Amino acid sequence: MKNWITIGYWTLSVLLIALIVGSLGYRFADSLFIGAMFLPGALSAIYLLPKINSAKKEERFFHFVCVVCAILLLEFMLMVLANITIKTIHDEFAYYVKIPDVLVNPIFTAAILTLLALGYFFLDKYLKSKLPNVERPVTFVSDRRNVSLLPHEICYVESRDTEVWIHATDNRDYRNKTGIAQWEALLDDDFIRVHRSFLVNKSAITSFGAEFVKVGDEEIPVSRKYQNVVKKLYQE
Q1: For 132-163, what is each residue's pLDDT tens digit?
Q2: Are strands 145-149 and 198-201 parallel, antiparallel or unpaired?
């Protein structure tokens, strides 16, 4: 159900953008093609921006600016490519359309991408609150083999320099190269960040302390930055 609603959202988004582009003088088929060109940028923003994570605000802002600029550059290249494709196809029919300035305007592009990303964010939040949450396995590579775990099987994720260790139930441990920030975005609200190096499954926490949480017999430190987040968990 959720997947079909999500597909419907993106389909409707492309159609609405196609109508806007069509008002600039494009045929509907060409407008639809250009509307679809906004999807890579919107999906990139949804996937990449939540993964920006740094202890320093200056670094977070710098990474944010870099990602946004990269997405806008991608969209600019896609718009130019789309128009070149349209011109090539329709040359023999003497159908020419000049690229409207608005389509290569970064402010217009950023506005469209922001609306698409925000719309998806609120839709996803609404669906999570209204539809039953069906657990889906998380698949990753550990020691050159594919591993699939359900989220409730993961007790906590630990970052160790260039590696991340996934500690699962039944004393299973797996190492992986994906950064802990990516794991935080992947595992979503079922997990809580308690330290720059630790991401913990809420349901696996057996007790709290002022500066630690316990998962089974393991005592995991809580850094000052995340103490308020853990305190809120006390109150739930």
Answers
A1: 666 678 899 999 899 999 999 999 999 988 89
A2: unpaired
Amino acid residing at 73: L
Neighbours of 222 (CB within 10 A): 22
Q: Could you give the C-alpha distances from 54 to 51, 60, 61, 97, 221, in angstroms and in order?
A: 10, 6, 9, 45, 18
* ∠ CA 155-161-164, rounded to 5°: 30
Do residue 29 and residue 50 come from a single domain? yes
* Residue ranges in the chain modelled with pLDDT below 70: 1, 51, 53-56, 91-100, 131-135, 234-236
What is the percentage of the chain residues whose pLDDT exceeds 70?
89
Shared domain check, 181 and 102: no
Q: Are residues 30 and 120 in the same domain?
A: yes
Please give the residue range of the domain that contains residue 181: 138-235
C-alpha pair distances (Å), 36 with each of 10, 42, 82: 9, 10, 10
| pTM to 2 decimal places | 0.58
- Per-residue pLDDT tens digits for 51-69: 676 556 777 788 888 988 9
